UniProtKB/TrEMBL annotation:
The keyword Zinc applies. Keywords: GTP-binding, Hydrolase, Metal-binding, Nickel, Nucleotide-binding, Zinc. Residues 37-200 form the CobW/HypB/UreG nucleotide-binding domain. The keyword Metal-binding applies. It comes from Stanieria cyanosphaera (strain ATCC 29371 / PCC 7437). PANTHER family: HYDROGENASE MATURATION FACTOR HYPB (PTHR30134:SF2), HYDROGENASE PROTEIN ASSEMBLY PROTEIN, NICKEL CHAPERONE (PTHR30134). SUPFAM superfamilies: P-loop containing nucleoside triphosphate hydrolases. Belongs to the SIMIBI class G3E GTPase family. HypB/HupM subfamily. This is Hydrogenase nickel incorporation protein HypB.
Amino acid sequence: MHQTFDAALELNLLHANQEGADHNREHFDQWGITCLNIMSSPGAGKTALLEKTIIAIKDQLKIAVIEGDMTTELDAERLRQYGVPVIAINTGRSCHLDSKMVAGGIHRLAHEYNPEEFDLVLVENVGNLVCPAEFEVGEHAKVALLSVTEGEDKPLKYPVMFQEADCLLITKTDLAPYLEIDLETIKANVKQMNPHVTIIPISAKTGEGLEAWFNWIKLQTKKDRVFATNL
Ligand SMILES: Nc1nc2c(ncn2[C@@H]2O[C@H](COP(=O)(O)OP(=O)(O)OP(=O)(O)O)[C@@H](O)[C@H]2O)c(=O)[nH]1
Ligand SMILES: [Mg+2]
Ligand SMILES: [Zn+2]
Ligand SMILES: [Zn+2]
């Protein structure tokens, strides 16, 4: 549970978390890894997206996953079958990953593998549209998912996630014809609060938009950044 007792305590909590996030980021940078923090409400399609992503790009980028769930290893087991290392973190009663938990995960990764071999660490956060956005874990970019079944008002009602996101994936677009949902309204609502966000509508089921998502990931990786500056 993420409870805030008073503003000063909240500030201390976030300050301590930031120190841990900086520590994690130093590890990632030292190892040449790009880390993406993938967040959404429960069931928006994070694990389904990771499955498709791993299958499509694991031969081009060496991937590890840090899988946050309150209790089970169900998602971790789903992803392990694709042959990438998956470090499972159970958060217990906490409804978000914090930087200390992720530090435990990356230290485990470094203990079991040579971390310098990896290009990309994908962190699947706990399903929750609110506090994961406030707790940095050392990521280089934040990815938010919003499924078409959630309604176009959600960015307005839960703004922090959408203000903080570097990339917004509007998921399950294959279901849009069955719903009264206007993707343009979602995009406009988000762009208004976060003009620099990249918005990609996707369907893990039909594959719509996935190529654009893979290209966005590749742009985030260190190698491509170095390559881009050499052009
Ligand atoms: N129609 C459709 N269903 C999808 C799509 N992506 C995911 N789903 C379904 O949505 C449900 C939830 O997907 P998950 O990938 O488990 O969602 P999640 O965000 O990882 O869920 P938590 O980890 O519990 O927060 C599953 O039944 C998926 O099959 C999609 O693109 N289209
Ligand atoms: Mg999941
Ligand atoms: Zn929380
Ligand atoms: Zn360390």
